[in-house]
Amino acid sequence: MAEAVRPRGLLAVRLAPRRPAIAAAALVLAVMGLAAVAAPLLTPYDPIATDTAATALPPGSPGHPLGTDLLGRDLLAGLLYGGRTSLLVGLAAAAMTVVLGTLLGAAAAAGPRWLDSLIARAADMLLSLPMLIVTLALAAVAGPSLATVIVAVAVTSWMPVALIARAELRSQRERLYIRAAYGLGLSGAQVFRRHLLPGALPPVASIAAFEVGHAVLTESTLSFLGLGIPPNRPSWGNLLTETKAHLLTGEWYTVAYPAAAIVIVIIAVNVLANAVAPADGRAW
Amino acid sequence: MRFLAVRAATSLLVVAALSVLCFGLVSLAPGDPAAEILEARNGGRPVPAAAVAALRAEMGLDDPLPARYARWAGDALRGDFGVSYLTGRPVSETLADTVPWTLLLTGAATVLSVLGAVAVGLVAALTRRAWLRRGIETAMFVLGGMPGFVSALLLLYLFAAVWRVLPSGGLGRPGEPLTPGVVLTYLALPALALTFGHHFGTYVRLIQSGVGRLRDAPHVENARVRGLSRWTVTTRHLLRPGLVPFTARLGVGVGGLIAGAYATEVIFSWPGVGRQAIEAARSHDYPVLVAVVLVTGVVVVLANLLGELAVARLDPRIRRSPRG
Amino acid sequence: MSRRGEAAGGGLSVRGLAIEAGGRRVIDGLDLELAPGRVLALAGPSGSGKSLTARAIAGLRRDGVRVSGEIRPGPGRQIGFVFQEAAASLNPTVTIGRHLAETVAAHGGGDARALGVAALERAGLPDPGRLWDAYPFELSGGQAQRVALALATVLDPRVLVADEITTALDPVTQAEVLDAVRAQAAESGRAVLLITHDLAVAGRWADELAVLRDGRVAEHGPAAEVLAAPADPLTRALVEAAALGAPAAPAEPGRTAGPGRTAGPGRTAAGAGTGGAPLAAEGVRRVLRGRGRTTVALDGVDLAVAPGEAVAIVGRSGSGKSTLVGALAALDRPEAGRVLFDGRDVWAGRERDRRAARRAMGLVFQDALASFDPRYDVRRVIGEAGGDPSLLARVGLDPAMAGRRPATLSGGERQRVALARALAGGPRALLADEPTSGLDVLVQERILRLLADLRREEGASLVFVTHDLRVARRVADRVVVLQDGLVAEDLTDLSAAAHPATRALLDATPALPGELPQPAL
């Protein structure tokens, strides 16, 4: 099963791309990114400062449009600053994952046979392990921090990227139009630049987008379990850790904001990833 | 059975790699286990350096790393994972208490997700109503964007807080005998959460595309034109090859499910191995953490192996491929 | 749609068949009567509804296709159907034996194994006992088609419908399969409906020929008579296109030996050795390594192509034809032997010289579309080879087509674009690997004519790979027959064929009356 790349859950669910959905997804992500960057301008509150005078305010309270939690922390501030952390981790971890994966995949596709089988076997093997468990062990040992989460995500998710990059380059190489290009007298470098690379790019771009969603997911899961971003720095994941009990006591909105933010980001990212992914039947 | 031998050997290799990984991580972790044990037993107060040194020698912590690994692996093979830093209880006892509950939870979720995904996926693949297919695709797409713990929180809110039809977590009230009915009541929510939180959308998609692609395939038409019964055409010629991609994914999926059980167990206070792992990770109780990771890893690798055997059973191309 | 019961008399009867596909009425009032034991070829250009008719007769339905009319016998055990893609028509997860057994069981049983083995034997499969436990993906193309035939005939149906079953096969295998079909028809009094686009096939294996036009049977009669004196204009056009050699390119010595050139005829140069040849292979050996198995595709091939000469390379599938083209094009390095371009060993020189040699050769592939980068439009395809859209006019296309994507063109147009690209570098040699198989006869005829014109204008040599001796004779001065990676025979006159491999190909190649020298049997 060396050729069969096994995409993870996020990756394998595909919808036919539709233009309005793409525009909406891009808009949502842009707004969320801007809001996260401009968080200090959008809220006067410190997300971790408690205010005993304004505890457990419902949404719509004056001065606290989304309400406050039981310790009097402003929920909007938490959401905005949490977005900073979560999106930062998502982008950084995805960037690391994609760079690592693409390099390894390209090395496997272009390198000597032993390197190819080493990388492919290792990726296959690691894929068969539940990476959340390894991430968890890693996070536990290295201690929770932003950097740990980013590294843990990258180290445990490069395999699908590497396998896709490798499979893509290899299958491109065997296409008839590559042979035809060599037949025209083009050099190896010209063929690589004009045909191989542009052909392999869309799937890699697509999986890069999926990886952002995957990184956001992993970060939020680790933080939710108390093993990711430490609580003194709000993230969408760790905001949920303390609020779980609120579901049963009526303050469901303290859970709903961060949870909705996570789901919306991942879905929007997946929509974009679908849009750049090559269609099933290839370009012809 | 060359195929089986190759697969089993690969699985052993994965387990060995995992054990090295676990042991390496723990050995590289900051902090002195001997000091932590003594402090924990001493109620968190500092202990004399001489006592720590003595315990280090007794635990063999001053030996070279490979020797320590060999000793640890040998003990682990005999089922001895050492004692918890925190409680001083043998880790194997903790495992015996928790592993069965995790297996029950993941087993139930596996059955639910396979049955559910096959049903939904076949509807999506075979329906001629475009709106139904689109609706399922959209729902699965949204599900694919939900982290497992978010769908768990959603189910918890709906079933335990709004409708109040299922208990919010735990396993029985204190003193209540654990009859199968009670267990089922408490199992329902975590099992549902685990089912929909992990790979469900992927399964549906794989079934839909795998079977849908074959609906008018020449070999299915050939089966029809040869006058076979509807049942034979559907099961043998449509479903059997059509479910290969789904089955191939199932092994990895079950592995993911077991990993996903960690968060689910925390949310629903399910007395399984995952909750132990999270607690151990938070409190740096490495013997417990390593044992749990290793045991989970073995179960996952076994699940992968079973999945591959199932695919090989379904698809002779894999069985008879030259690479084995 | 009404179907009469199992009427006595046998044979196939179709009355007033009408088929609507995608809102268009493709077949409109088709009538066919076929007596038991007879073979009827149903011919027509692509898109004429041949396959739709075959599927309707077998009772196969698809969304968006509406069928009406009267067909006897109805679907069931009295009608067997063989698909064009034999391998795809078998379930890859089920053994051959199970396919046969389930068919027998579905119609009331009997000794499935005995019936199945007998059917495999009748289909010309030598070792049915071993095949019984094989899976479809373990069969060769010819074996798969024979298994599909056995599967369709295991219950000895009164009618067999065969939908272009030999299109993908080499001529020898095609002859074997169709011989089996014909023999069975005669033995068990089966009516056979043979769908084909190849009139020569119809002429050789069918008793009757029906030509489809505008949704009806335009002409129907004994095959030999229809082919000798076609009455319908479409039939005439098809016959002309199929009669490749005779009318279009009479074999005049002056034209075949380097047309328009004063240089010595290619044949003598080729015969004398490789000295003056622009392109030559000397003892070329190629070993292909696939998944767990290695094949010696070329085992010491010598071939010299003189300036302006046209050489056809023919052989059965797997004989090494395409591998030889890859070696000649300086693309694949031979394990042993030399490839010479302009007398220089291309693999001894520098990479730059090799690329110059490739530029001086124009390559054309069977699958033209796959040979274009899917991101490129026609202009970029030709531009990359150093040409501009004005070249399109030379290959009979509108230069305004330059902005289109190859995927939106028809098969014939794509092959013309491929030819334009091959011409862009001002080639000294054209290498064409089965450029016309898979094309409609009418389109094939036009492409071959274009190729002949271009060669004359350019004065380039031509190496043309084909499995069809008729095409080979049409385009080439010389025919090189490959077998198992070796040159079996190198002929300027097919009637001088002596090697068994050539004889087998000749025997298997169907010909229209007076077309090919048919060796006495």
Automatic annotation (TrEMBL), chain C:
Keywords: ATP-binding, Nucleotide-binding, Transport
Matches recorded under InterPro entries: AAA+_ATPase, ABC_transp_ATP-bind, ABC_transporter-like_ATP-bd, ABC_transporter-like_CS, P-loop_NTPase
Disordered: annotated span: 247-276
Highest taxon above the source species: Bacteria
CDD domains in alphabetical order: ABC_NikE_OppD_transporters
Annotated ranges, domain ABC transporter: 12-239, 279-509
GO molecular function, one term: ATP hydrolysis activity
PROSITE patterns, sorted: ABC_TRANSPORTER_1, ABC_TRANSPORTER_2
Pfam families linked: ABC_tran
Any single biological process term in GO: transmembrane transport
Family to which the UniProt record says this protein belongs: Belongs to the ABC transporter superfamily.
Protein name: ABC transporter ATP-binding protein
Originating organism: Bailinhaonella thermotolerans
